[in-house]
Design a protein that fits this description.
heterotrimer, A mainly alpha (306), B alpha/beta (327), C alpha/beta (340), B: 327 residues, Rossmann fold, 8-stranded mixed sheet, 12 strands, C: 12 helices, globular
Chain lengths: 306, 327, 340
Amino acid sequence: MNTNPMDAVSGAEPTAAPTWRQETLTQRVTGFFLRDRRAMVGMILLVVMLFAAFVGPRLVPYEPDQPNVRNRFAAPSWSHWMGTDRSGRDLLSRVLAGASISFRVAIGAALLALLIGAPLGAVTSYIGGLVDDVTQRCMDAIIAFPARLLAIVLVVLMGPSVVSLWFAIAFSSIPRYARIIRGSVLDQKEREYVEAAHAIGEGRLAILFLYILPNVLPPLAVQVTLDFASAVTVEASLSFLGLGLVPPTISWGGLLNDAQQWLEEAPWLAIFPGAALALTVLSFVLIGDAIRDHLDPRTRRRGGMR
Amino acid sequence: MALLEVHNLTVDFNLGVESLRAVDDVSFTLEPGEALGIVGESGSGKTVTALSIMRLLDPAARITSGQIWFDGQDLVTRDESAMESIRGRRIGMVFQEPMTSLNPGYTVGEQVAEVYRHHLHFSHAEARRSTIEMFERVKLPGAREMFNKYPHEFSGGMRQRVTIAAALACGPSLLIADEPTTAVDVTIQAQILSLLGQLQQDLSLALLFISHDLAVVSELCTRAAVLYGAQLLEVGSTDTIFTAPRHPYTAGLIGSIPQRGQPLEGIGGTIFDLRSPPPGCRFHPRCAYAQPRCGRDVPSLSRSSASSPAEKGHAYACHYPLSAMRK
Amino acid sequence: MTDVETELRMMEVPGTAESARPLLSVRDVVKHFDVSGGTFRRLLYGPRTVKAVDGVSFEVARGETIGLVGESGSGKSTTAKLVARLLPVMAGEVWLAGRDVLKASTGEMKALRKEIQFIFQDPFSSLNPRMRTEMIIGRALTIHFGLHGEARRERVLQLLERVGLSSQHLERYPHEFSGGQRQRIAIARALATEPSLILADEPVSSLDVSIQAQVLALLQDLRTRLGLTMVFITHDLNVAEYVSDRILVMYGGKIMEEGSTDVVMQRPLHPYTRALLDTRPRIGRPGQMRPLEGEPAVPLNPGPGCRFASRCPIGVTECTEQSIPLVEKRNGHSVACIKA
């Protein structure tokens, strides 16, 4: 309709940014793991650990608590890859059994903290005023206690079980979720697109659910991942102290506790459970760090520049 | 001899998997005491060009080829310690957002005095005296009282005066100003521009002025270079370039300035993605005068055939330049 | 009847006929911000109040575009947000086609939101990063016309085409667009409710020069085709001159001058308007720029007089002592200056 190069009205910007790829969420997530080496290493480690925890116990020839008095303190060998302990029990079987307990405790605790903390933070900060103030002071009170001490007290009160470990570990991280989501909600509330939503006539609930919440979820993903890591270590340290899961339940903390008496004679008893613990924590931290850097525009490098 | 000669400067950014060329074979010269405006939109490479001269590029960026001759030495080959004695001392730089180049924890006076102490080894008293003189020179009202104020007590315009004072403290022969008036109000912009013009004359300073605003460059500079998509499309005196542009892009930029009662000509389309530049002339997908050849052959920068003094040094990269008739 | 009498009559009974009545009427709106920094500081050092908008009145006729011009701190954006009720007002009235915007109940407000739409300065922050184009524009259609599914999609597509985009853009997220395209989406969102008034807050100032021209040309075209009424806020006199029928010059929360664009640009009466025109660099005409001394005033605890007095080249002592009203000098050209 118009020979003007401008052609502003009809077919503006015909060469509309041709290289912006349209990606689905799955493509974006896989792309992220493929591009970021840390995330990839972390993910591979995590998949290996998860496989070991949930499939591994079925593949090993020994029962984790089957003693064999004639084969005590056997060093790692082809028949016992990680050696045996003071009762001649196969350490590999025991580490694998401990892995499944560790994951169950960690995942449960982190999700529990998320499910309580996130809605609490979102709703109270969106309401604001006195509700927000009171909640924040309660959160401060929880944070004032050292997390592990608080967990110890709660486990002692509730008795040792997986469920009480969930609550004990989750309790001290609830404030973290509430705070993260509160900060994001307060930040998003001031964004111009929220004002723009008001301007087209959106109601308060629609603004919270359609506009604010989708924008505050990504930072939570980071926290959940890092919380898995911290829950694994809290569980291990509680069990190490004999306050968490007690025998016959097998946990890495318990294995390490046993190992400390025989450090010189049978160092493998400490090395293998310790390595499993360290690798699990490392996998979560690598993934969490990579996600955080990816979400942070200051560290994310894109093509844009002046 | 020219003060600054940029020859075939090429800068690449490494973005992990991909890479892009932010400055592509850009050449220009700047005579002592001359004001050259570098004009361009986002992605034109104007800021990267300036940062290359200062060797302050992002770690992901690398000068892949070209030379930057400043005062008889090639800055591209200088090591970091040599650059430190050139930056701030021989070449001053002023940025768009003055707050980023000022430290909020020190008074503005201390920060400028530090430049004197560090580069010229002045004593405290000498540095203080020179700082106050420089504050007067950049017309900071009440220069003596200003010495002990913190950056946050200043308005944007006054902060920009402080950064200009710091950039000029050691008497550089070249000042690079990267969009120094973009973040300030129109009346303050006029103050800063007239200050820069004044200082440039008084100190016979060479000025490399980077801006997206043609009118500002027209006001302050005697020559202008127009960048688009990492390449230099047209260079010449502001008088020629802004009244009789030969490159359709320059003409389009001028036509993009709204004027009452006249249809807004502007330029259709958007800038290409620097990661995948179009073949041939980079402007051809948006050019109203493009011919098939423009999509194939890259036009080289050719001199204007006109011999009038104003046309001297006028060059443009276009196969089918606009006629030299003045608007 | 003499001209003066006719004028007086017009002023007494503004627009007796329905068609002559202005679409938007803003009367003495006031917005102050308390910047004391908490209760304690307020008690200790006294209140510190920024009078961001201090008694602003104007009218906009149907189909008219007015340019609201000023520097930072002039109160131009705040004025627009008060009119759209995006900020609570302290005093004053805003009437849109006979309806009181500021006293509207929640239900009435929903209907008024349909009539008043806002275009924001920065298209990188005014679009929800986690919503696709179809949803961004479609929400307005769902809220005000109850459209869903295919019908909504079709209407969104029409709107996209109207602003120069196409069906391939429906499914994309804001980050996949350039600045100019984002602003087109924001314009389509504003057009979706079929508003009678559009408030555009610096809609082109964050865009590149060539893209700015595209978006301005688009707005101009939409204006003539759809007969839009617009309040266009800008700091750029070239832009204001290009788009507006009338210009309002604001400084320190007050209107300094008001009149038809040609008159204000060619025969400005207020020294501030003259200064704004003189400080504008013009392409191809170097050396004509004359800077204005001083800094734009933030109206913090201002005195009774003219806000511009401290920078005014022709100011006298009376300027700071008395409040200076906006006075009509000749048909529709008003100025707030005792020397004019």
